[in-house]
Write a structure and sequence with these properties.
alpha+beta, 6-stranded mixed beta sheet
Length: 150
């Protein structure tokens, strides 16, 4: 009896930890270009549209957050800060940030499961190419060489 109670308790704890981990998803980085040296997060510019960008740039990655309760502005701001930091870690000078409604991408089954409106954040990470350092140029050359050898 004690063994089965212990096993049930263990499974309950594992289930609870798994649910908490699912709710605390971290942002995903998908690399689309070379690896650049990190920059300070404070220097990363945030745009809502690519039309506002006045400098020559290239997309070096995309970032997608986990689902966030749409009514929780503090959680959204926290996630934006994390996205900016992630872009900075990969050497991006700017991001184009969009709020996406989960329902736009959800299947019928997902829509039935979502009880409260949720969003996720999607960002394109940009590297300005009009003032590259020699290290940046070397990273681009190395990446191009690796790409051609696929």
């Amino acid at each position: 009896m004690k063994l089965s109670t212990g096993i049930c308790f263990f499974l309950f704890v594992v289930l609870c930890v798994g649910c908490m981990a699912h709710r605390q998803q971290k942002a995903d980085w998908i690399s689309l270009g070379p690896v650049f040296n990190p920059v300070k997060a404070e220097t990363v510019e945030v745009f809502k549209s690519g039309k506002k960008i006045k400098r020559a740039s290239a997309v070096v990655g995309v970032i997608k957050s986990g689902y966030i309760d749409a009514s929780n502005e503090k959680a959204i701001e926290t996630e934006i800060t994390k996205i900016i930091a992630l872009a900075a870690q990969h050497g991006a000078n700017a991001i184009i940030l969009r709020r996406m409604d989960v329902m736009e991408d959800a299947t019928y089954a997902d829509k039935k499961l979502v009880e409260t409106p949720h969003i996720y954040l999607y960002a394109k990470a940009l590297k300005y190419v009009d003032n590259l350092t020699q290290e940046d140029k070397n990273a681009i050359e190395e990446w191009e060489a690796d790409t051609y050898n696929l």
